[in-house]
Design goal:
The protein has 336 residues and is α+β, with helices and mostly antiparallel strands. The protein has 3 domains: 115 residues, Beta-Lactamase, CATH 3.30.450; 81 residues; 137 residues, Histidine kinase-like ATPase, C-terminal domain (Heat Shock Protein 90, 2-Layer Sandwich), CATH 3.30.565.10. It contains 10 helices and 10 strands. Strands 2-1-5-4-3 form a 5-stranded antiparallel β-sheet. It is elongated.
Length: 336
């Protein structure tokens, strides 16, 4: 019995999860070191105090209803999420498992095992926000495509049809060559639109030429010089990896054009045995990076949050180095 009790105490004390025991009225009887670290309280300050020291009255009522009542009736309580109040006044979200301790066959105390899930909840909240914003952005893009097709392509085709009808009836004010030119202009517009959606150069020639095409487009349309450099032996990547790297680079260059005020941009595409890395650097105004990369969506930087999500889907990483007034370096690295 003594050996068993000693083993329990050793496991109790060395556990990485926070554990505490309180009686049926909420008076704390025992707590381990992990619980001290979680709450910021020293053990002596907790013992014989009520759990409302670190749980709100609402939180205690929730545990009473969703855990204590169940285990008192012989059931198994599902883990519940609860807010914990640390000694310094900050809060944490914990997931709590509850079990009943009996003495002489009667309920005597409750043991709780808690795990800090604060960061996980922040990631989930940020992901929900990101998905919501992405859906809004997708809908806006669909409206833009529909509007452009209606206002440009459809109108041009309607004009061509009318001109052909007039020609067939012998009342056309345009020659056949002029109508042919109108058709060519419409076809050119459709091709431009198709290129915006997915440039054929990516499928035909690969990542590096496609990024050079992006760079040339930025220079031609906005006058921002972009230097593109390849390092290592270029090779064909899986289609999803090439598309992801291309889209992230495209988004990064769009951010440079819209927000940075940069006068110079460089893009380096590096091929190694194990990874492919793209770095986009500019000498623009820079910005303040959130403390946690997971807070990009919450801080309104949806483009960067989208890049991070794309990289993670491929098992890759996104690194951002920026400082106000000192430009920005963005690096995406994915396994080859």
């Amino acid at each position: 019995m003594r050996v068993s009790e000693r083993n329990y105490r050793e496991l109790f004390e060395s556990a990485s999860d926070a554990i505490w025991v309180h009686d049926l009225n909420g008076k704390i009887l025992a707590a381990n070191s992990a619980f001290e670290r979680l709450t910021g309280y020293e053990r002596d300050a907790l013992l014989n105090n009520n759990v409302t020291v670190f749980l709100s009255s609402h939180g205690k009522s929730k545990i009473d209803k969703e855990a204590h009542d169940i285990v008192l009736k012989g059931g198994n309580a599902e883990p519940i999420e609860q807010e914990l109040i640390r000694k310094d006044g900050t809060t944490a979200i914990i997931q709590i498992g509850t079990s009943l301790i009996t003495k002489d066959g009667q309920p005597w105390a409750f043991q709780h095992i808690a795990r800090d899930i604060t960061e996980e909840k922040k990631v989930q909240d940020n992901l929900r926000l990101y998905v919501q914003k992405v859906n809004q952005a997708q809908e806006a893009e669909r409206k833009r495509i529909a509007r452009e097709l209606h206002d440009v392509t459809a109108q041009a085709l309607v004009a061509i049809v009318r001109n052909l009808d007039d020609m067939a009836s012998g009342h056309s004010q345009f020659s056949i060559k002029e109508i042919q030119e109108q058709v060519r202009d419409s076809l050119k517009e459709v091709r431009r639109f198709s290129q915006q959606l997915r440039p054929s150069v990516l499928d035909d020639l690969g990542l590096l030429p496609a990024i050079k095409w992006l760079a040339a487009d930025l220079t031609k349309n906005y006058g921002i010089p972009v230097d593109v450099k390849g390092v290592g032996e270029p090779r064909q990547l899986p289609p999803d990896a090439e598309l992801t790297l291309f889209r992230i680079t495209q988004e990064a260059l769009t951010n440079v054009q819209r927000h940075s005020g940069a006068r110079e941009v460089s893009v380096t595409v590096e091929f190694t045995n194990n990874n492919t890395k793209v770095t986009v650097s500019d000498n623009g105004k820079g910005f303040e990076i959130p403390t946690r990369m997971g807070d990009l969506a919450k801080s309104g930087r949806l483009g960067l949050a989208g890049m991070q999500e794309r990289a993670q889907l491929l098992g890759g990483t996104l690194t951002i180095d920026s400082e106000v007034g000192k430009g920005t370096n963005l690096t995406i690295e994915v396994p080859s």
